[in-house]
Specification:
By secondary structure, the chain is an alpha+beta fold. It is 23% helix and 40% strand.
Length: 182
C-alpha cells in the first residue's frame, strides 16, 4: 500500500469518525491574538472557530471530501519532496467525551489492522484531546489528535515515512501546540 493509498484510507477513516448532530453557532469567534511564529503561516477559520500555524515552506491543498459525511472543512499540507503530510479535518460530531473518542478511534484502527504505538489524553490551549500514534503500514508512522468541542470533532493527522518521523516531530508538535478552538 503506497502513501497515496494510506491518505485515501485516512480520509475514509476520517469520514467514519463523528456523528451527525449539529449545534447552532453562538456568534462570531474572535481572531487569534497570538503572534505568528517566524517560519510559519497562521490559518484561522472564523466561521468554524479554529486556527493553527503550519510551516511556510509547506504546500496547502484542499482534498475532496465524500458528500454526506458531515465534513465541514478538510485541509492538507505537504512538505514538497517528502511523503510528509498534515491533514486538518473538522466535522460534525455527536461524540461528547474523550472516552467515546478513544473507543471509536481504537475500534476503527483495530478494524483497519493498524498497530497502535502510543496513546494518551492531552491538553492543548485549554482543550482536552486524545492523541494516538500508530503505524498503518510498515514504512509509515502517523500521529492523530482529536478534540471535541462545539458539536464538532477537530482532527489533526500528521503522517510521514517512519525513518523521517523524528525529523518532523518538532514541526508536528508546533502545529499541534498552535491549534486553538474558540
Amino acid at each position: 500500500m503506497g502513501v497515496i493509498s494510506v491518505l485515501v484510507a485516512l480520509l475514509v477513516f476520517i469520514a467514519f469518525v463523528g456523528g451527525c448532530t449539529k449545534q447552532p453557532n453562538s456568534g462570531e469567534p474572535s481572531p487569534p491574538i497570538t503572534p505568528v511564529t517566524p517560519g510559519y503561516i497562521q490559518v484561522y477559520d472564523h466561521q468554524l472557530g479554529y486556527g493553527f500555524e503550519y510551516p511556510d515552506d509547506w504546500e496547502m491543498q484542499t482534498p475532496e471530501v465524500v458528500d454526506g459525511e458531515d465534513v465541514e472543512s478538510a485541509e492538507m499540507f505537504t512538505k514538497p519532496g517528502t511523503p510528509t503530510t498534515l491533514i486538518v479535518t473538522i466535522k460534525l460530531s455527536n461524540l461528547t467525551s474523550l472516552k467515546e473518542v478513544k473507543g471509536e478511534i481504537k475500534e476503527e484502527l483495530n478494524n483497519l489492522g493498524m498497530t497502535i504505538l502510543e496513546e494518551r489524553e492531552i491538553v492543548v490551549n485549554d482543550r482536552e484531546g486524545y492523541e494516538v500514534i500508530y503505524k498503518p503500514i510498515a514504512p509509515v508512522k502517523m500521529r492523530q489528535v482529536i478534540f471535541i468541542a462545539n458539536g464538532k470533532s477537530y482532527m489533526l493527522v500528521c503522517s510521514t515515512a517512519e525513518p523521517l518521523y523524528d525529523e518532523y516531530e518538532e514541526i508536528f508538535d508546533h502545529v499541534l501546540n498552535s491549534f486553538v478552538i474558540e
